[in-house]
């Protein structure tokens, strides 16, 4: 999978991707905009949905963009410099795990949806667009962001397979497992009917 000549570059690329993923857009944007720390307010999650609760739409949009870019850019840049699918897959997972477990913020990160989506666009534009359409459709139907995210990423491996990027489908099986784990509290609330809906406190 990794030849001797590619092993060191792959490790370097994955390390840089993890460090990029560890930069929390939610925390930095809230500090810059003098908003409450998202780890201490709302749901306590440093992600776009919680920033929407504590800081409004503009701050949430910036957070979403920042978290998506730290998934997209490492994958896209690696694809240009090291066009080696296993290395690109490793970088995608590293950026995602950096968001979940950021070294700069005591390994207390967000749930990874935006970063996983950004990395997905770096792998396949078609699969990324299908993921957005799926998220929007489920979110509009049920008004539950976490449910839309979980359903979407359960389908992403299939989207990668059908879009001609089957080499990366297993990457998103792994990412989906982590996403379901990071959303375990949400899943419990969905099942008992207490998960907050978008637009409601």
Question: Can you describe what's shown?
Answer:
The chain has 201 residues and is mostly helical. It has one domain. Helix content is 72%, strand content 0%. The N and C termini lie far apart (49 Å).
When the domains are counted, the total is 1
Beta content: under 5%
* Envelope shape: globular
Classify the helix fraction into a percent range.
Answer: over 70%
Can you give me a brief rundown of this structure?
It contains 10 helices and no strands. It is mostly helical and 201 residues long. It has one domain.
Question: Which descriptors apply to this entry?
Answer:
single chain; 201 residues; mainly alpha; 72% helix; globular
Topology, please?
Blueprint: H1 4-21, H2 25-32, H3 48-55, H4 57-81, H5 85-100, H6 113-123, H7 125-142, H8 145-162, H9 169-182, H10 184-192
Helix pairs in contact: 1-4, 1-5, 2-4, 3-4, 4-5, 4-6, 5-6, 5-9, 6-7, 7-8, 8-9
